[in-house]
Model the fold of this input.
Amino acid sequence: MASWEQLGELATVAQLTGLDAVRLIGMIVRAANTARLHRRNCRQFAQHLKLIGNLLQQLRLSELRRYPETREPLEHLEDALRRSYVLVDSCQNRSYLYLLAMGWNIVYQFRKAQTEIDRYLRIVPLISLVDNARVRVTNKNPSKLSIICIRYQV
Done:
């Protein structure tokens, strides 16, 4: 049976659905700046994500989301960012007693979140290659693009 805390986290994640990676990173950075507990961990994590967000802004994320092969890894990255927001947000609402009891676990969760995000970021160059190949194919054969688009409009 789920605890009230877990239900609250699920509700928070559900509210974040539909936000792209860059917006989620912005929310994490703002939440980290107001964190009461684990300030150093929150700010280091946010600084790392801010660098990533600046680079992701240069990608055409909305265009990459059109195609299933590039949309899926981006959705996984956004899921990891939603969970990261819940983690950083939890550092605002916890008591010092909770920090004393769960301090090392939270540090472990930060490491785990950063590792997961970095794992999805390693795929970004491959996503860019797939997108570049798609652009080259469509520039050489515009009729092939319409076939591809029709095929994925299920």
User: Anything to note?
Assistant: The two ends are 37 Å apart (CA to CA). Residues 68-93 form the longest helix (26 residues). Residues 1-11, 145-154 have pLDDT under 50 and may be disordered.
